[in-house]
Amino acid sequence: MFALEAKNINKTFMDGKNASPFHALKDINLEIHFGEFFVLMGPSGSGKSTLLRIFAGIEPAYTGERVLGAGLSQKDISFVFQQFALLPWLTVGENIELGLLERETSEEKRRERVWQELKIFGLEKFANHHPHELSGGMKQRVGIARALATDPKIIFMDEPFSELDSFTGDALRQELLDVWAERKVTIVMVSHNIHESVEMADRIAVLTKPPARVERIIQNHLPRPRNMRSEEVFRLDDELYQLIKP
Ligand code: ADP
Ligand code: MG
Q1: At 175, is the pLDDT very low, low, confident or very high (cuts 50, 70, 90)?
Q2: How, if at all, do strands 203-207 and 37-41 pair?
Q3: Ligand 1 pocket, 13 CB below 6 A?
Q4: Which residues hold their Cβ within 5 A of ligand 2, which is an ion?
Q5: Is the CB of 22 under 6 A from ligand 1?
Q6: Is 159's pLDDT higher than 80?
Q7: Where are the domains of the chain?
Q8: What average pLDDT does the segment 160-187 reach?
Q9: Could you tell me if the CB of 49 is within 6 A of ligand 1?
């Protein structure tokens, strides 16, 4: 059972810096399984963000097919952005409520849902704060809480931890893994951080330079919670490094 299937996806930018079209993605075929933690890696500029946007249904211009799994629709999808993308004029609570506005008509239910997410992410005290009053880690907690509030089946994340310092990132990665395990949501995440990918992923797809193909899919069967200082982890780190190094 797949949550998302990509069949022969190709993407060419016609509006690039060069006069000629730029072939970014070439014949991408992938299946994302229900409930898995799937990570996309590859050199900078290899088309990871572009592919993620195509997967998420927010990039309409491509050829090939993007098929959502049985019973899924665009409403079952959420997105977490690298730079948080919070609306600065709204409070934390209102930001988390955003995706619920078009789905949940009763204000009481929306409030309840927002409150649940605030509690899970330790944000209760910040409900009425505005984004500019928060640290980066807290902003991304809001970004993730907002994505989860609509009870999505698939969450797409584009380098969600890369703007955070390493301690903040560690804590938030752990929180995300807990939520992922508990809610059985499917996560597709772009990362350029090898160790992070080994910590989180069930499978890692490595893209080549453009025109990007899937170079390799690495299975990560290491038991969870993972001992990130174990020999097996360092071996996987190294395998990925050899694939991705410039
Ligand atoms: P990644 O996320 O792997 O760093 P991107 O998906 O952002 O890569 O971009 C892939 C390639 O497509 C890059 O070489 C980039 O320069 C090019 N590209 C991205 N967006 C556009 C655009 N709007 N117009 C032209 N070229 C673009
Ligand atoms: Mg990118």
Answers
A1: very high
A2: parallel
A3: yes
A4: 49
A5: yes
A6: yes
A7: 2-72+153-244, 87-151
A8: 94
A9: yes
In which region does residue 213 sit, left (phi positive, over 0), alpha (psi from -120 to 50) or beta (all else)? beta
Q: Whose CA is nearest to atom 4 of ligand 1?
A: 45
Calculate mean pLDDT across residues 102-127. Answer: 92
User: Measured from the CB, is residue 192 less than 6 Å from ligand 1?
Assistant: no
C-beta 26 within 6 A of ligand 1: no
Q: Whose CA is nearest to atom 10 of ligand 1?
A: 47
Please list, residue by residue across 69-108, b when 16 or more beta carbons sit within 10 angstroms of its beta carbon and e when fewer do. beebeeebbbbbbbebebeeeebbbbbbbebbeeebeeee
CA distance 170 to 16: 36
Nearest protein Cα to ligand 1, atom 14: 45
What global pTM score does this model have?
0.96
CATH code for the domain defined by 2-72+153-244: 3.40.50.300
